[in-house]
Design a protein that fits this description.
It is a single chain. The chain is built from one helix and eight strands. It is an alpha+beta fold. The chain has a single domain, classed as Thiol Ester Dehydrase, Chain A (Roll). A six-stranded antiparallel sheet has the order 1-2-6-7-8-5, covered by helices on one side. Strand 1 and strand 2 form a beta hairpin. The protein is globular. The two termini are about 20 Å apart.
Length: about 140
């Protein structure tokens, strides 16, 4: 089993099946070993996918949430020296978007697993700005 002292130094591409320019996470900020929850971060780039009229659109927020789930699964697999697996969004419930981040803003996406079985992860997601303002939240089901 692999170990890492500072997960923020891990190349995000090592744990995601996505490739640029369709990578909507800059890094893994935290991983809680007891709950397997993760927090990722992403600074909204001017030329980013899903950026329009200086804002990060709803589609981008949803994909950021899904990729944060993928990062959680990918990091666990990376620790156990397993290959990165692609996944698909199974469902999204209760999506609430209270604001749209602007170019240059950094968002933090926290994924908290609720249940996991047979390659399906059910999790709650919260996206917040650097100042802690809630941007979006939902429950998401991802299958790998």
């Amino acid at each position: 089993m692999r170990t890492i002292d500072d997960i923020t130094t891990l190349d995000i591409l090592a744990i995601l099946p996505h490739r640029r320019p369709f990578v909507l996470i800059d890094r893994l900020e935290s991983y809680d070993e007891s709950t397997t929850s993760v927090t990722t971060s992403y600074r909204i780039p001017e030329d980013g996918v899903f950026v329009e009229d200086n804002i990060f659109k709803a589609e981008g927020l949803m994909e950021n949430i899904a990729q944060s789930c993928a990062a959680r699964i990918g990091f666990y697999d990376w620790l156990h020296e397993l290959p990165v697996k692609p996944g698909v969004i199974g469902s999204v419930k209760g999506l609430s978007i209270s604001s749209f981040p602007k170019i240059g803003e950094k968002i933090f996406t926290h994924i908290t697993p609720k249940a996991e079985a047979l390659g399906v992860l059910l999790a709650s997601a919260q996206v917040k700005t650097e100042s802690g303002t809630l941007v979006a939240e939902c429950q998401i089901k991802v299958a790998v």
